Amino acid sequence: MVYAANVSERRRQPPELAISTVIFALRGDGEESRPTLWMPLVRRTRQPYQDLWALPGGPLSAAESLQDAAARNLQETTGLQPDYLEQLYAFGGLDRSPAQRVVSIVYWALVKPDEAALARETDNVRWFRADGVGQLAFDHNQIVDYALWRLRNKVAYSSIAYAFLGEKFTLAQVREVYEAVLGKTLDPANFRRQLRAAPDIQATDEYLQGGRHRPPRLFRYTGSAGPKNGPLA
Amino acid sequence: MVYAANVSERRRQPPELAISTVIFALRGDGEESRPTLWMPLVRRTRQPYQDLWALPGGPLSAAESLQDAAARNLQETTGLQPDYLEQLYAFGGLDRSPAQRVVSIVYWALVKPDEAALARETDNVRWFRADGVGQLAFDHNQIVDYALWRLRNKVAYSSIAYAFLGEKFTLAQVREVYEAVLGKTLDPANFRRQLRAAPDIQATDEYLQGGRHRPPRLFRYTGSAGPKNGPLA
DNA sequence: ACAAAAGTGTTCAGTGTACACCCATGC
DNA sequence: GCATGGGTGTACACTGAACACTTTTGT
């Protein structure tokens, strides 16, 4: 039995290769409050770490690329199709798993609100606020921290914020994304000017109706969605 | 025999896990010219890609972390001990290797000039200019391109430049590092001011003698050397 | 009319860049 | 003395932050 393997036995086996994904979505938690970052986790149904929450993941199938494996696994466990998917890091510490050694190649994903609304929530799949996940299985707390760090960094210098939004959005909604991710408020006037200066934000001639005040104009993002990692795809 | 395996056979085997490293050092190539980026490569002595140059690498031993594996492999193949070592990316495309599927976790390293001078150059280990490596084995050209991209990015916003330099250095030497990596000249006056404003650059009371002109002051870097990736070690 | 968000204008401090200039050394 | 790189001073354009102000809607 693998789980009972002693150390010398374990040293002889090749490390197992697994794929996991940290998934982020923005959700308005209350009625009147600002949206915040959420992520889906799956409950462990086996040892080790049985009944603790963990990142969705699984083994790498032989006939699919790493990214495809992440997307498929994500789809199978949570029903989600990400709008942004990028490799985060390969975790390969010796004692990540108590039995067989596991090397995990971790991806991180962003999903749009309509997609996140479709996500099925079962007894073994539940959404958590990103800043309140509690104790997770394996080294997954460390992985979530790193993913959050990367998200906060990347939102500041790239255009991933739009992966959190639908096709059309108000500039205030974009600002809410930044405020939720960065955890601080931003000056609406200056933020607006910055976005207007960006070439890949196009104004539509539509306005968001139904609000309590002056209807804001809707905009569209015309840049590409996927990650741009220099010479990589 | 692994290399003769057909596709359906190959699909059944678990992917192999390997570690490779892209190593950068700065070398003055001529007498009077500016230093440029170089990297050591190893010659393939077996199929596939026999006789082509490739990144140093090898399989992951069961009892060492990913980073330790990279450092050890690097030491064994090139004799180098890096001053900076950081994970680059996990490459896992289906057709990276013609026979068994291989997932490579790639690191990148920077070595100081005294260390690079010690490096043994044999018939199967040779140094190349980073911008003229020719055709490499596997997808290693793509990997080198990505490592170069990361290096150029990171040099602009972090302090890795000092991993290319010895304990004491002139500000002009630091500038030469930036110019070699970024591939453009920088204003000496403004560059100097920027560095003087950095808190972890300390002036010594020594001067570099033997130059053709006014002897420049030597400085010391007091910051830490390793990669700082947010919540990761 | 009033409140509140949408949207515009203006000021100000900090920063990067260009470049003129002085300093110290070898030849 | 002269050439050259070391090192300092300074002006200017650009940018981000602060904030006053106008516009447009719902109530």
Q: Output the helix-strand order of chain A.
A: HEEEEHEEHEHEHHEE
Largest interface: A-B, 32 and 32 residues
Q: What is the CATH C-level name of the largest domain in chain A?
A: Alpha Beta
Q: Helical segment tally of chain A? A: 6
Shape of chain A: elongated
Full CATH superfamily name of the largest domain in chain A? Nucleoside Triphosphate Pyrophosphohydrolase
Distance between the termini of chain A: 41 Å
Number of domains of chain A: 2
Task: Describe the largest sheet of chain A.
Answer: 7 strands, mixed
Q: TL;DR?
A:
The structure is a homodimer of 233-residue chains. With 233 residues, the first copy, chain A, is an alpha+beta fold.
Q: What is the topology?
A:
Two copies of one chain form a homodimer.
Chain A: H1 7-12, E1 16-28, E2 35-43, E3 53-54, E4 57-59, H2 66-78, E5 84-91, E6 102-110, H3 113-118, E7 125-129, H4 140-157, E8 168-169, H5 171-182, H6 188-197, E9 201-207, E10 217-221
Parallel strand pairs in A: 1-6
Antiparallel strand pairs in A: 1-2, 1-4, 2-3, 2-7, 5-6, 8-10, 9-10
Chain A binds a DNA duplex (27 and 27 nucleotides) through α6.
